[in-house]
Write a structure and sequence with these properties.
The complex is a heterodimer. Chain A is mainly alpha-helical. Chain A has 13 helices and no strands. In chain A, α9 packs across α10. By secondary structure, chain B is mostly helical. Chain B is built from ten helices and two strands. The chains are: A mainly alpha, B mainly alpha. The interface between A and B is large, with 42 and 44 residues.
Chain lengths: 301, 241
């Protein structure tokens, strides 16, 4: 009788465990299904560059959706203008961003355009044109200096985005060309807080480097001014904190920063090796310890 | 298994203060570790979910600093306790009952390693605290000092960059992270295994929570202290030290 009860009890426990396990799997599968369905919404490409073809559904939802085509493309209504011949092999093969005259943006965005002309990107663009015109160098640089359309999607850019959304998109946009800076920014406290943890008081690219001016902050005084916008009590040494503490190529032009990076790297390596040695020693000791005590137990001591 | 009907002779090993501090340090350590790593590894989705759960980046930063202050108050309490032990209780800081390291501990360490490698048949006759208990204690105690220093650097970068070069903040970041990893892995892998999960004490050593220990354990794991509590006229039962 007792034996029967024990076996029954056991089977019940086993059944209970099985049911529990089944529920566990159900929950797991539910999560999986949810993730599979939610994932495409996350990975939607938000800022494709301009092309000759415009998705009108998305255009109408964008910041420029209320504008008519000829507001920006006045030449299409000019007299004597004919539609490009679709049979022509060269038609629409030119880069649409390079062939658009972005001076027209200034009509509505004069401040942004003025700042762009003052900034580093406009200087790089001017230098590029000079080289092309002089024809001295055949080889074009790997990446062309950007105009408005390289960073902003004129047909699809959305309006009324939150500061965090703009900041995250900005990190991606700038990161297309400044990859090392993007990577080091996302490792820095500003990037982790701003992009990953969505803290809107954090600083995004343009908060330090200036919207549309896109300045390099190699000059300590300039960098200090940028720091002070948020860190009111900062002193000039504060600007020596390395924000883009990434691969060496970032600091190539700044010997002081490079020296600091070498020091930081050395300390990092030493502390990592120390950590590994300490943990490895105690892990090994603990492992042998367990073996030794198991041995004792099995020997019945 | 000891017979439950026979009343075990119990010994008090930890005072209420010591037990309470251990509990507070457990809570503070888990809290500080979770909030710290969820910020350090915020590029990973589960960390972001956890931060969202706690109410966003600001509240995680606040909690991390709150737990840090709680932990450091524990350290301060321990310093006061050391003074109390030395001057009021008249304890010997380098005596056998103290948590401080003595020369003897090096010999215990050598002998214990010898025992682990089966060069000796029995572990050495430890006093009130074994060398690994002392190591755990001082690792946290000293580790807290450097963690607090680097943590303060990251908390008040504007203040510290007044009289130190700016890149010291970067160095503090590196050391704070690496030591955090070291502390968390040490406590959750090594301290828990050695203290609670190794075959001799499995499934757990509850002494630090109840404060009580049995005569049996005293004789087995702290024979030195046992011998000093029970001086036998015919000499110690555990042989020479």
């Amino acid at each position: 009788m007792d034996q029967l009860r024990v076996s029954l009890c056991r089977r019940n426990t086993a059944k209970k465990t099985l049911t529990l396990l089944a529920h566990g799997w159900l929950i797991f599968v539910a999560w999986l299904i949810l993730l599979i369905h939610v994932q495409p919404a996350w990975s939607e490409n938000l800022t494709p560059s301009s092309s000759w073809f415009v998705d009108m559904n998305r255009f109408l939802k964008s910041a420029h959706g209320s504008l008519t085509c000829e507001r920006c493309h006045a030449e299409i209504t000019a007299k004597g203008k004919v539609h490009p011949n679709r049979e022509d092999q060269t038609a629409m093969k030119k880069d649409s961003v390079r062939s658009y005259d972005y001076k027209r943006c200034a009509a509505c965005h004069p401040e942004a355009y003025r700042r762009f002309l003052q900034g580093e990107h406009a200087k790089a663009l001017a230098k590029e044109k000079e080289i092309q015109q002089s024809g001295l160098k055949e080889a074009t640089p790997e990446r062309l200096a950007p105009t408005c359309g390289d960073c902003h999607s004129s047909h699809y850019a959305q309006s009324k985005l939150s500061r965090v959304e703009i900041g995250s998109q900005m990190t991606e946009t700038c990161g297309k060309c400044h990859k090392a800076q993007e990577v080091s920014y996302l490792k820095d406290i500003h990037g982790r807080m701003g992009v990953f943890l969505e803290k809107k008081a954090s600083a995004y690219c343009t908060d330090c480097h200036g919207a549309h001016t896109c300045e390099s902050l190699k000059d300590k005084q300039k960098a200090f001014e940028a720091c002070q916008r948020c860190h009111r009590n900062a002193t000039i040494q504060f600007a020596n904190i390395v924000i883009h503490a990434g691969p060496e190529d970032i600091s190539k032009k700044d010997p002081e920063k490079q020296a600091n990076m070498v020091l930081i790297g050395t300390i990092k390596r030493i502390s990592q090796i120390g950590t590994i040695i300490i943990l490895a020693f105690f892990a090994l000791q603990t492992f042998v310890w367990i073996l030794r005590e198991l041995h004792n137990k099995l020997r019945g001591r | 298994m000891a017979d439950q009907t026979v009343r075990q002779e119990t010994f008090w090993r930890f005072s209420v203060l010591q037990r309470a501090l251990h509990l507070i340090v457990i809570l503070g350590f888990v809290g500080i570790g979770l909030t710290g790593f969820s910020m350090a590894f915020s590029s990973v989705a589960p960390a972001r979910t956890f931060v969202w759960f706690l109410g966003g980046a600001d509240s995680v930063r606040y909690l991390h600093r709150f737990f840090a202050v709680v932990m450091y108050l524990c350290v301060v309490t321990h310093v006061f306790w050391l003074f109390y032990y030395k001057f009021i209780l008249g304890g010997d800081l380098f005596g056998p009952n103290s948590i401080c390291f003595r020369k003897q501990d090096l010999l215990y360490f050598r002998d214990h390693i010898g025992y682990l490698l089966a060069l000796r048949n029995a572990p050495p006759a430890f006093d009130r605290f074994t060398y690994w208990e002392k190591l755990d204690y001082w690792a946290i105690f000293i580790g807290m000092q450097s963690m607090s220093l680097t943590g303060l650097f990251l908390w008040f970068p504007e203040f510290f960059s007044r009289f130190l070069p700016g890149y010291f903040i970067n160095i503090a970041q590196v050391l704070h992270f690496d030591e955090g990893v070291l502390a968390v892995l040490y406590i959750f892998c090594i301290h828990l295994t050695v203290g609670h999960w190794r075959p001799e004490v499995y499934p757990g050593d509850w002494t630090i929570f109840t404060g009580k220990t049995t005569k049996e354990t005293m004789m087995k794991t702290h024979p030195g202290e046992w011998a000093s509590l029970n001086p036998s006229p015919r000499g110690s039962a555990i042989g020479e030290k």
